[in-house]
Amino acid sequence: xxxxxxxxxxxxxxxxxxxxxxxxxxxxxxxxxxxxxxxxxxxxxxxxxxxxxxxxxxxxxxxxxxxxxxxxxxxxxxxxxxxxxxxxxxxxxxxxxxxxxxxxxxxxxxxxxxxxxxxxxxxxxxxxxxxxxxxxxxxxxxxxxxxxxxxxxxxxxxxxxxxxxxxxxxxxxxxxxxxxxxxxxxxxxxxxxxxxxxxxxxxxxxxxxxxxxxxxxxxxxxxxxxxxxxxxxxxxxxxxxxxxxxxxxxxxxxxxxxxxxxxxxxxxxxxxxxxxxxxxxxxxxxxxxxxxxxxxxxxxxxxxxxxxxxxxxxxxxxxxxxxxxxxxxxxxxxxxxxxxxxxxxxxxxxxxxxxxxxxxxxxxxxxxxxxxxxxxxxxxxxxxxxxxxxxxxxxxxxxxxxxxxxxxxxxxxxx
Length: 415
Description:
The chain is α+β, with helices and mostly antiparallel strands. 52% of the residues lie in helices and 20% in strands. Strands 2-3-8-5-7-6 form a six-stranded mixed beta barrel. Strand 6 and strand 7 form a beta hairpin.
């Protein structure tokens, strides 16, 4: 016998057929419970990771990684600034923009909108809108043509298609012989895009940079400059760097600040979901307690014999710790494998189930994302496995301690 006694006996108790089949059944149920709990935990957390990643990519496909603007109303004499910002190695794209609020009116419908003036040649460096066009082309925005590109939901709300006319009402007022009147301008719809985020599809409209500057009474002036970075998670570092490098009067903001509440809510939701599903794992793991308690009662005579042969209470305790830990480890290992397989294929499995049931679990008119994305991360798998293993060890302590308290004479009295 080359193994230490507690490991040898504990493993033997685990793999041998018991006289009491009910104990074997409880052990099997414990393993199945751990497998299902770990599988659910890894799958849920992976779906949350995928959801966060998908939403972040969609938002940052339109929003900016970093924005440089002015503490005043807008940026004047800005033409040398893009070249200066492009010199940073973290920056891969630079584009000026004009941002203002307005109201679009067409076909008897009115909708508030965010107007963004862009340079189509530079916009492709900092956003994915050009690749999300349903109809038309971003390059249809030419200075002086007064064309406009709308989000898909905004276009549907106003009943517009490419080639239709839409009236833009700006907050600035014009003084006329009949009094102060709002400034109006007719635009031609030249494209429709769909990002998949209601915030942009239902409220964003894009026009040429020069047209926006003229319309909002700020020719030659821009609202700011948008930066695209190699790594989106370098945004806080880049913001800090620009604040120190640029002269006073500039404001620097990044996506981690602009959308901090939203992504913090997602992180909180992920943590809460992890805790809730982890409780299922813990409940399954603590079935080991009942398994070992019955095993201890079943093995009282064996324990007494080991004690009379010189085994210490600590040795007896270690035997049952090994047995319970082995049950938990088997369930954890199988659960991790099943969880990774399910989480890696959830994007295929869920559409198949939806097709079979002829339903949609996540309607696109309700949720940001109508599919279930998934991203398996090693740290989540390790966390789930460590949680299950540690809970398995803790669950063995009371039954093992109870076994170690067995008195040989008392146990053998009726044998």
